[in-house]
């Protein structure tokens, strides 16, 4: 029984990092005038209303998107992310936080394709409602641990795959690293973006070691640690397999800017960015 709802967390600091990087990667792939597919293995609802009780419960968006939504910055990558959010929130009036599916659907071109997997029935129905008119998109109420590898290699031969689980199962870190390994073997050319929460226990550490030992090509790793003084989530990280080669030159500065707005204090917060690990 799944109890996680992304609405509790939508727009928090982890979402900002993940969605900023996702848009950067999609824009990079779009530089080539060749169609591709975006696959979201754990799709969520696509967009989240700030007034929704889920978002109001812990108001995590106050520690994320709200801290950067109105900043005036010339950084083109950051501007690109914020402009997309502003496009559904005119006049700087933040009412909706767009999830990965919405951002990708807005970013992709008319001949690109999108495929979303969402196991939670209510979230699946929300997702369908949010994208029912978009013929580029396939949405399935499926378990990604069974379904994702079957979608690979895609017929487009170019793909960005976001793996963004809720980590609510005990063994979910292991499931994710195994799934990534299986998918990579079937489709080594895919760009895989894998999100994970950094917790104050050994689980995230052994997950990181499991990913590193696979020798994925062009692997980048970003971590934003926001607070290491508690037992809950201390921050989040992203691995990108087959990451754009220019990532460091392109967005290291943007990440530092975002981090400086989001961090809670200098003592507890840290940004780690490693490129070309293998
Ligand atoms: C972190 S949220 C996704 C957020 C979304 N990708 C975004 O960035 O806006 C994870 C989602 O995965 C769904 N989920 C959990 N287990 C799943 C599974 N085995 N297969 C597919 N979806 C799953 C949850 O219901 C939840 O909506």
Net shape: globular
Beta content comes to: 15-25%
Could you tell me the radius of gyration in angstroms?
17 Å
CATH-level-2 architecture: 3-Layer(aba) Sandwich
- How helical, in percent, are the residues? 25-40%
Secondary structure elements and their pairing?
Elements: H1 13-30, E1 37-40, E2 47-49, H2 53-58, H3 65-68, H4 76-87, E3 96-98, H5 100-107, E4 113-117, H6 121-131, E5 137-140, H7 144-147, E6 159-163, H8 172-186, E7 191-199, H9 202-212, E8 220-225, E9 233-241, H10 247-262, E10 270-274
Parallel strand pairs: 1-4, 1-6, 4-5, 6-7
Antiparallel strand pairs: 2-3, 7-9, 8-9, 8-10
The structure holds S-adenosylmethionine.
Can you describe this structure?
- It is a single chain.
- With 278 residues, the chain is α/β, with parallel strands linked by helices.
- It has helices spanning 13-30, 53-58, 65-68, 76-87, 100-107, 121-131, 144-147, 172-186, 202-212, 247-262, and strands at residues 37-40, 47-49, 96-98, 113-117, 137-140, 159-163, 191-199, 220-225, 233-241, 270-274.
- It has one domain: 3-Layer(aba) Sandwich (Rossmann fold).
- 38% of the residues lie in helices and 19% in strands.
- Strand 4 (113-117), helix 6 and strand 5 form a beta-alpha-beta unit.
- The longest helix is centred in the first third of the chain and has 18 residues, at 13-30.
- It starts with 12 loop residues before the first helix and ends with a strand.
- Bound molecules: S-adenosylmethionine.
- Residues 2, 4, 6, 18, 40, 42-44, 99-100, 117-120, 123, 143-145, 164-166 line the site of S-adenosylmethionine.
